[in-house]
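Q: Two folds, back to back.
A: First:
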Amino acid sequence: MRFLNPKTDYAFRKIFGSETSRDILISFLNAILDLSGADVIIDVAVLDPRLAPKIEGMKDTYLDVRVKDQRERSYIVEMQVLNVEGFEKRILYNACKTYVNQLGRGDPYHILTEVVAVTITDFTMFPDLTRVISRFRLRADENPLICHRDLELVFAELPKFTRAEAELTTTLDRWLYFLKTARDLTAIPESLALEPAIVHAFEIANRAGWTEAELDELEKREMWVGEQRHILELARKAEQKARKAEEKAQEAEEKAQEAEEKAQEAEEKAQEAVQKAEEKAEEKAREAARMGEAKGEAKGKAKGKAETLLRLLRRREKTLPAGVEDRVRAADTDQLDDWSDRLFDGGSLAELFGIDHNH
């Protein structure tokens, strides 16, 4: 036996969207929604999938199956093989529209029932989440246990399901394994044969039950999907390259800005160093000027004291021995003060200068 790919829209429609496959839908929905007790689905009415709203740019990229259970709760079951732009918004749009369309003009709001959108993706939709099944409801931030069940989005990401046949333990495991591997199987695995609804799904997917025209259409659809995936992959790679180029440009800009800031800092430090050097030079110049003034002042004082001492010596000695005048003029103030004091105390030239006046 050879089986068709149940992820192809045409095959998916026949397996999950026909009146003869209600048992398949019931089993699948109960499994993926983990329903139990009073919530278990026991009967469904399949609505015409051609009523699915078409969004511009999404033509022929998806198929959904509309279902109502015995309690009038609505379900949208969709297989999505291409991660196209706006995909998440379309899912929410379809769910909201299904919810709104329950009311006719003048109908009371209390008759509104729950809408659950079940989406199976053949690609990873939430890379930051590890579970295969992700469920979204309106919840309160303060207390996540408080939520509205009227609108729920459920996602099954097939690439995250990696269990082998021997590891299948639940009905959900078996359904996910069927969706992911049916096209590569040549017989119904024993573990999947335990589920009558899955056996029925295999029977519908058996290529032997399809006409040549249907098989040809399926082959064209798979080729088209492959081409679209290739195009999307090329677009993603181009986007990644553009993003990397933008990041490098941003990095270069930041480095240039950093270099400019460092240059500005270096210039400020250089200006500060020049200013400090100039201030230091000015201080040294002022110090030198002060020292010069002090020396000049001391020299002036010494000269005045020398002239006073010489005048006193001449008055007393009339004639000064050779060399005394030169010694007096060359002496510093301390020496001059010492000579002056000794002169007033009656000291002689010999005592003052060590010179014999008679010689």
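A: Second:
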Amino acid sequence: MELSASPWLFAILGGAVLLGIAIAYGAVRSSHASRRQRDAAEKGARRMYHKDER
């Protein structure tokens, strides 16, 4: 392997690592539901549960 190829190797690998970190960060940030969303989900689940009991 030539010495001039190693900066490209580091650039490609570094870019892939940074992209993976950015995607993981975005996934973690968007996975949290707000209080309003949790309350709406709970209310909908109760409504569906009580509908099935009848």
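Q: And?
A: Residues 6-30 form the longest helix (25 residues).
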